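Blackboard transcription, Thursday session:
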Amino acid sequence: MAGRSLGDSVIGWYGDVAARGLDSHPDAVRHWLMAGFRLMARKSQFAPDGRFLPSGRRGYALFMRSMVDAMADPDNSVLTSVFMPTESLRALGLKPVTSEAIASFVSGAQAEGAFLGCAEGAGIPETYCSYHRALMGMAESGVLRPRRLLASTSVACDANNLSFKSLARRWGAQSAYVDVPYDVTRDGIAYVADQLRDVTHQAEDIFGRSLDESLLRQMVARSLATQDALEATLPHRGERYLANTMTLDMMEMLDLHLLLGTDEALGLARGMGDDLARQPAYDGAKLVWAHVSPYFLGSIGSLVDCSQTAQVVAGDMMFDCLTPPEGRLYDETHPFEAMAERVVRNCFNGPATRRAQTLVRLAERTGADGAVVFCHWGCKETSGAAQLIRGRLEGAGFPTLVLDGDAVDRANCMEGQMSTRFSAFLELLQERKGRVHDSQ
Amino acid sequence: MTPNSVSVERSTGDRVEARRDGGHVVYYACKYTPVELLAGFGARSELAEADVSSFDEADRLAHPNLCGYGKGLIERLLRDDVREVVLITCCDVIKRAYDVLREQGDFDFIYLLDLPHKRGEAERRLFRARLADLADRYAEYSGRSFDVGAALAAFEPPVRSTGDHVTLLGAHATRALLDNVGEGVGYPVENGTCTERHLLVTPPPELARAASEGDCSACGDDAGAGVGRAGGTLDTFLDWYAGALLNQMPCMRMDDVSQRAKLHGGKGQRGVIYHTMKFCDYYGFEYALATKEEDLPMVKIETDGTSQSLGQLRTRLEAFGETLHGADVAREAAGSREGLGRGYVMGVDSGSTSTDAAIMDERGNLVATVILPTGAKATESARRAKAEVLEKAGLREEDMALKVSTGYGRDNIPDMDTAITEITCHAKGAHFLMPEARTIIDIGGQDSKVIHLDDRGNVLNFVMNDKCAAGTGRFMEMMARTLEMSLEDFCRTGLEWKHEVKISSMCTVFAESEVVSLVAEDTPTPDIIHGLCESVARKTATLARRVNGEAPYLMTGGVANNAGVVQALTNVLGAPVATHEDSQLCGAIGAALLGLESLQQG
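(Written on the board underneath:)
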């Protein structure tokens, strides 16, 4: 909380202006927010953050551009959940945008409080996931413009089942819900594939377009190649200086979901690999991160952002499906099945042990020194699994910190306590690392 | 089916044998649990009540930020008497509870049944296959064959209440909660919560015939199997049962919940109560939508899933009961006192910080009032308040035609004729003090409430925050203490603010931490206090929006004396917020007025 930077103060003022006009002038607030986002998008393109690697600058700019495009063009934008496969929607020329990205946009502008209040005033429970509360508040206030189609999966979050239906009802729009079975079976994948076909047909009807199946196959082939390229970065992530921040990691994670299947996403993943291969070796503490992060908390960010002493090397949101090519049942010749397989195998689907195994594997592949399980407010899937995951990671030799907070709502973050715990954990890792060095 | 979804554990053959002899009891938590299928294997299914005394183990093994039922379930199912468990992938919390139980528990049999979110033919087929897998696993574990007669005998016919009743919807309700609702509201309670089975069909005659003809496996492909699925009978049963179970009245986790509209407005239904818990979001959503679309008396209550949190619900449930019954309660009391007294009525409001009393004559004129601190003994304070107000009015207790109590201590005041909740009394009292007011904002010592009124002072809707200190007088007291100031100095100093300071948290603990940080940054004290006032105002305005509050506003309760909060509320609500010098007497005046009205009507 202490010592706000000039940048923070400017953004705080920008967010306050938005918040104050919310009740009376939602259109003006939308224009105000969009003006700021456009400015940031231009900045990321023409004056990017010099600390980042070329791929990082590209990832940042890509996120800003895709968000501004989707927000500015609601008629061609589909509101989706983060793990919803979107290649077929992209193949129809549509612009998917997720609740996580929208909420991050407003919390980045320090304007989340007003939207969260708006949602609570409409009766949305205050213990509801704050990504979804912010989304509902934006819709409730009229700042978020209606979409014609909303599409979500049951993976990772019960809130998908509520928010998307509720918004569709409010907007008189259609809502598609993809029910993902708990287990990985061929029947389950076929069931999801059929639902993805249905969503695509629904989109074709709503937007009056026809799917080019060969284009879809190309996109799915790129998705698989993107995942392989991303997986190939893992060994480098453990060895090299990543020059990353929690904000950048969130943006790249969202790029690699929202834009999966595009040339941009494939270029981003390959660019990461190329950049990392040229980076200097890294000797600081290496962390694997579970779930989203409170990227806006300066005191936490200052400990890992572009830091030589500690960096986040991988997270389960970005590496949510680590199926090697030989383990896959389907490829681009069965595009809907391949998309379905990805979501059924997602580590956020199924038992908590699947997610724990993914995190252990990430830690092993990167040679991480420890892990952080971030319990985002209202996410019962993660909170309920936190101690089990910690047990599995520690059992595999990776010290683990369970950190409570909120990745959207500053009011749910006890920043002083959080940074003390996080700092102490890093000290523990560094001391442990020192002992290992000494013994060698 | 992967090993992830099922665990069949036989620790020892002896234990399984012991279960066979002692009878199988399967604990479950969801209305989609196939209790009839399990009954076909001779198992008795028991709903895990989860009314536990603490969540210590659940907090340690999982996380505090799960719903109370999920945490209670972990605590309950880890006890030694639970040997068999079947859970459903019905919501995030139950899935995680299963993970914790599998990791930590020592069960003979534990199974997670994956429930589709949709109810089409593809889903019915998937669900049928999963039920068949459960049947196979349970048969293998228990060594028993399926008996369709036992399965059919376990069916309870779908019968809905048609006499006068209220319906409890939402999250799982303990027996104690159901009793509390019945007592508080004064009507029989129909249980429609998420754990209560609600099948819409009965078994077809073919199944009943199969049962009466005995096990027909001898005619089927599995003839001679002896132990297990009993072939054709089980298949015939599952063909029907998968659809019947899946197509029962849907819970909110289903994709299509339009059928749930039938839960509102049935014959004899006087009102609906929604039970919610923190970190269970489904029913808060449904309630918000239902209040917009349905013209039916509804109220939302929140518990932590245990009977320990029920005490705080009393006021809310009784107030809801009063709106359903009209002013019957006071009228009944008036009827019993007809002809007594000289036409004076007394109202006594036993609150957490003050005890107030008012005497009114038969024309509705205030004769005398007193305000006393409640102190440590509420009953003694009420006795003193009664004595002092009688003395001030120059009257005796026998002169009172009716004595009505209200407030938190209303049931503990001796020699009163009846008790009415502070919601109803407050509304009536506020209407007396400021007839044009349509929304009353009352922030007292330990709770805050917003009441939306009609033009006659009747309650249209209300909302209370009484679960924590957030936004209450106690919050302000604690913040004043953090700043090492008296409450009076705190209120006065806050008016001298110059710069906006944002306090984002309303939680007393979080806000205190923010205040400490601001003090460390040398932020001027008046600015911090103003930030706190704004924070309270924002929280209160959110409550006001929930009841569709409208101007003119009247603010009552102790915090109405803090001009900073009143000003901040005016800003946030965009309309003037009035106060009244007698606002603290609102409850007592309202109680007296309701007494007077009942005498006049009776």
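Lecturer's comment: The first strand of chain A starts at residue 77 and ends at 80.
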